[in-house]
Design the sequence.
């Protein structure tokens, strides 16, 4: 077969994959969850908006008696030494059981230059981590 014979099926597969990854619905493990973002810093504000934009239901304060909630915790730290890398970590943990539902850790410089870009990168990573995985046939 020639290259052209593979181009169309490959294009269709790529479009399907892109549409699947970019869907606005929350990922399967968080279906029915609220995401709690209590932090009032700039990164938390942008991250709350980015998660909402990706279809997650976001709360900014604790409310009892509701559906299951996953709390978002973000922090950064720097490695010891002259060439120490600053890392950013974001995790989502079930507020009832404490089970970590998603965990993202990345060098701060790889997330983007602005706080908004960093929040978007973290939200994308969280959404991809929670995407349903297809089991092999």
Sequence:
């Amino acid at each position: 077969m020639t290259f052209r014979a593979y181009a169309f099926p490959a294009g269709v597969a790529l479009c399907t994959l892109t549409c699947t990854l970019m869907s606005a619905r929350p990922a399967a493990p968080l279906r029915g969850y609220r995401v709690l973002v209590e932090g009032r810093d700039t990164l938390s504000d942008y991250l709350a908006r980015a998660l909402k934009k990706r279809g997650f239901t976001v709360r900014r304060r604790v409310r009892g008696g509701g559906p299951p909630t996953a709390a978002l915790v973000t922090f950064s730290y720097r490695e010891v030494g002259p060439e120490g890398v600053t890392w950013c970590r974001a995790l989502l943990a079930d507020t009832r059981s404490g089970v970590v539902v998603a965990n993202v850790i990345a060098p701060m410089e790889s997330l983007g230059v602005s706080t908004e870009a960093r929040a978007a990168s973290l939200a994308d990573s969280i959404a991809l981590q929670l995407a349903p995985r297809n089991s092999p046939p």
Q: What stands out?
A: Residues 24-130 form a domain with the Double Stranded RNA Binding Domain fold (CATH 3.30.160).
